[in-house]
Amino acid sequence: MADDAENTGHGGVEAGLEVAIGTDHGATDAPGMPQLDFATFDNQVFWLVVTLVAIYLILSKIALPRISAVIAERQGTLTNDLAAAEDLKRQAAEAEESYNTALANARAEAQRISQETRDEIQAQLQVEIDKADAEIAAKTAESTARIGEIQASAVATAEEVARDVAAEIVQALAPGQDVDADAVAAAVSARVQG
Amino acid sequence: MATESTNSQAKSGGGKVVGFVLFGLAAIAFIAALLDDYEGGLSIHPMDQFIVSPLFGDGAVGPFTITNATMWFGLAVLAVIAIMVLGTRGRAVIPSRSQSIAELAYGFVRNMVEDVAGKDALPYFPYIFTLFLYILCANFLGLIPGSFTTTSHIAVTAILAAAVFLTVTILGFVKNGAGFLSLFWVSSAPLALRPILAIIELISYFVRPVSHSIRLAGNVMAGHAVLKVFAGFAGALGLAGIAPILGVVAIYGLEVLVSAIQAYVFTILTCVYLKDALHPHH
User: Fold this and answer.
1) Fewer C-beta within 10 Å: chain B N or C terminus?
2) Is residue A27 part of a domain?
């Protein structure tokens, strides 16, 4: 490449074409690639070292501590937020559980109260029924006694009437004769009983 | 978007304006670079973009001269400050967009170091992150039309690779003593093969910094040179230049990819070498 450049140079003009693969028209007189111009090496090396040191100092003193701090802070925030979310989730679960417990308790309580009320009413009812039964029984007994009395008195009255009527009939059938009252009464009694 | 606050919507609106302004500036610089090449006839100097020259005056380039390379080194530092310091100034637990970028880069490289080189490599993470951010920023800054790409210079990448090589080698001996040499003694291979393998391992070990540095500089330089060649054609062809411009757009897209991939490759290789230093046993 370098040879090529030297050969063509400024003089190698063919039909106005000048293709110079080199720097021979420039300010420097180095042939070929500027990369191989050793005169500029120390300059480039010096400024490269300055550049690298500058970048290294900027990174290690300012940028890297800042970025690692930000990343650490973000990590911390994430961890905290996740922990907080976990906590809230646990609290929500707890709240639901206590709600369910309360609901179950309330239901049991309601059942108990209704059962109690039912039992109470049942007991009261039973008492009333018993009382009514007793009253009914008492009244029945009384009535039965009175009916018996009335029956007995009716039988007695009927016997008396029958005796009188029998005595009268005997009197009428056999006038002048003494009516044996006792015999009549016995006969009537035997008939009534019989 | 709908759920975000109006504040962040205003911010994203501002970001769009900034994006348009940057895009416009890039386009103007790109056209200016194209016109700069147009000198009548086909005159393409694809390597001129790599010339190191003093920023002020016309003197020789000494070790401490402020050159265009110096400026773009400085801009890389500013880019790192913008991404890693300004972007994270909110220190928000819920990151803003700019803070997300910084955290993404941080997590990406940190995970890479941890996955590839192990947990005991984490003390070296700031150094590796420095390398990654420098290469990434330099590569992307180099994609601005008219810019100077510091990582396209073998002097730069050689120093980066040599620093990695020396650090890793010294670290290997400090951590493992003579046991570091077991890196070259493949104990899983048959005994007869081991001396031969040791020679191969040794050669490949010393070739590492060469491939490490040339891979980066070569990729970046080749891409930029091709871009410049296409741009030169576009300048020379007039209206037909639309074809090379489309080519430039396509290659530019590829170069965006290469910029990120080469930064990644350099970093992950550094991690691999670090792993060898910390755990030399196969």
Assistant:
1) N
2) yes
- The region that residue B61 occupies, defined by phi over 0 for left and psi between -120 and 50 for alpha, beta otherwise, is beta
Do B47 and A34 lie within an 8 Å CB cutoff? yes
The count of structural domains within chain B is: 1
Q: Does residue A95 lie within any of the structural domains?
A: no
CA distance B245 to chain A (A): 19
CA dihedral (A117, A120, A121, A127) in degrees, to 10, reads 180
Our count of domains for chain A comes to 1
Q: Which residues of A touch B129 (CB under 8 A)?
A: 59, 64
Domain ranges, residue A5: 1-36
- Chain-chain contact of B133 with A28 (C-beta, under 8 angstroms): no
Report the complex ipTM. Answer: 0.82
- The amino acid present at B223, given as its one-letter code, is G
- Minimal Cα–Cα distance from A29 to chain B, Å? 11
Contact between residue B95 and residue B104 where contact means Cβ atoms under 8 Å apart: no
Instruction: Look up residue B100 and give its DSSP letter.
Output: H
Domain annotation covers residue B216: yes
Within a domain: B28: no
Is residue B138 in some structural domain?
A: yes
pTM of the model: 0.69
* Cβ contact, residue pair B103, A69, below 8 Å: no
pLDDT band with cut points at 50, 70 and 90 for residue B202: very high
Domain that holds residue B216: 46-56+63-278
